[in-house]
Every structure is written in structure tokens, then in C-alpha cells.
Write a structure and sequence with these properties.
Helix content: 40-55%
Number of helices: 5
Radius of gyration: 15 Å
Bound molecules: zinc ion
Largest sheet: 3 strands, mixed
Length: 140
């Protein structure tokens, strides 16, 4: 799996229609938050039928696309709990990047770094074994 393209952004920008199609291909529905709401935010409801993703308004289209694939990862990872543990968040990023890669969408190294900074914000939010694995992997 290739996570990164270059530092100049996505190798192939993905349209709203393209994201909607990929969501449907994975059994999910993509909705867009009203303009000006959910700034730089996205969410997903894996328990909805069908699972739904709501994509906010982003200043950075690459971050918007990466967050879309992350939320799709949550929708696809049906064996995860809905609780936002470190492990669930990590798996959602990995699954999302795999789906993106299969669709020919790769991200810049700076965007991938942002995703991992986002992930690290979940450190210490629970006392799960997943958290422990992350700490051990980082040597903390
Ligand atoms: Zn998440």
C-alpha cells in the first residue's frame, strides 16, 4: 500500500461525486453539511442504515478527502465498537487509506502527517489495550 504521493498534494483530486460513488460502493451514503457548518470536521454514523458520512466545509480539499476516507473506514470496520478508541481510530485511517489507494487516490506526506497528528489526539482517551499497543510501538 502506498500512502503518499508527494508533498504537492493529492495525486488526483477526487470530486464530491467520486466520493459519493465510493461511499455507495462500500454500502454507505455521503451527505454534505450545509455551507459554513462543520468547519474542517466530518462525522460518520456506522449504526445508521445505511451507514452515513457527513462531510463538513474544509479550507483544505486534501484534508477533506482524507477525512472522508477515514469516516468511510469507520463505516466499513463493522467489528469495531462505536467508541472512539485509539485502535478504532487507527484502523479507520488504515482502512480509509487502503480504499483510497485502491481508487487511485494517494495523499501528500504532509497530509498523512496531519492524519497521524489527528490520531495522536486520541492518546489517553481510554485505557484500552489498543492504547497500550500504540505506546509500546512508539517506545513511550
Ligand atoms: Zn475517527
Amino acid at each position: 500500500m502506498r500512502l503518499t504521493g508527494s508533498d504537492s498534494g493529492m495525486n488526483a483530486p477526487i470530486s464530491d461525486a467520486g466520493m459519493g460513488r465510493i461511499a455507495r460502493e462500500h454500502g454507505a451514503v455521503l451527505r454534505f453539511a450545509p455551507a459554513g457548518t462543520m468547519r474542517d470536521l466530518s462525522s460518520s454514523d456506522r449504526l445508521a442504515s445505511p451507514p452515513s458520512i457527513t462531510l463538513g466545509t474544509y479550507a483544505n480539499p486534501e484534508a477533506r478527502a482524507a477525512d472522508f476516507f477515514h469516516e468511510l473506514g469507520h463505516c466499513v470496520n463493522t467489528s469495531d465498537t462505536v467508541i472512539a478508541t485509539m485502535g478504532n481510530e487507527l484502523r479507520a485511517w488504515i482502512t480509509g487509506f487502503e480504499i483510497a489507494s485502491a481508487a487511485g487516490v494517494t495523499f501528500s506526506t504532509s497530509e498523512v502527517a496531519r492524519c497521524f497528528r489527528e490520531l495522536s489526539s486520541y492518546l489517553g482517551t481510554d485505557a484500552s489495550a489498543d492504547d497500550r499497543l500504540w505506546h509500546d510501538a512508539k517506545g513511550w
